[in-house]
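For the sake of transparency, this paper describes our internal protein records without simplification. The record that follows is passed on verbatim for readers who wish to inspect the format:
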Amino acid sequence: NLLHLLVRQSMAVENEADADRRLLDLDLQIDQTGPQVSVKARYRRAAHWFWEAWPPVALGYVVKVPRACSLELLTAEGDINVSSLQGTLLLRTGNGAIFTGEINGSVQATSTRGDVAVTACTGELTLIAKAGNVLVGRAGGLTKIFGVGGTIEVQSARGNLHVEGDGADLKIGFVYPLTKTSELHAAGGDIEVSFDLRSACTISASASTFGAV
């Protein structure tokens, strides 16, 4: 039950003195309260000249946690990658991609600019990609997806799927047996749905005057 944290600091400077000056603007806090570990990083100086490199110090985190662990990972800039895990995930990035392995639990992931991909999720899954693609391998529980532009693809779902695309194409694959009702909406995009040949279901499909079923 150990947590290993590695923080990588990198910057483009000519000497150690310049590096030390840049590190003065970085406020990096690592705290532990009981079993919870929090890592927070911010720059004290918000304003900068347009010719300055920003952020002055680039940070990368490598975190090793027990197989059963809940994570809350938030970053304004950068990708988030999580391997297979048992627990609850809250992931959010302003500019970057999000990827997870097989998650035995629930996942809530939001990317303002970047792709979101989940290999598999057994619990509730909520994904938002405001400018990127969404890819889900296997969805086991209630799944809610919202995407703008790009493609939204769910390869394997048994139902309980609620997908909304704004200028995004939807590609959904339902496997046997279907257990819950699903709703798929696309504004300015196509919807392609495939079913297992053993499936029995009722389909209600409609399109605007500019589309076709």
In short: The two ends are 54 Å apart (CA to CA). The first strand starts at residue 4 and ends at 10. The chain has a mean pLDDT of 92. The helical segments are 16-24.
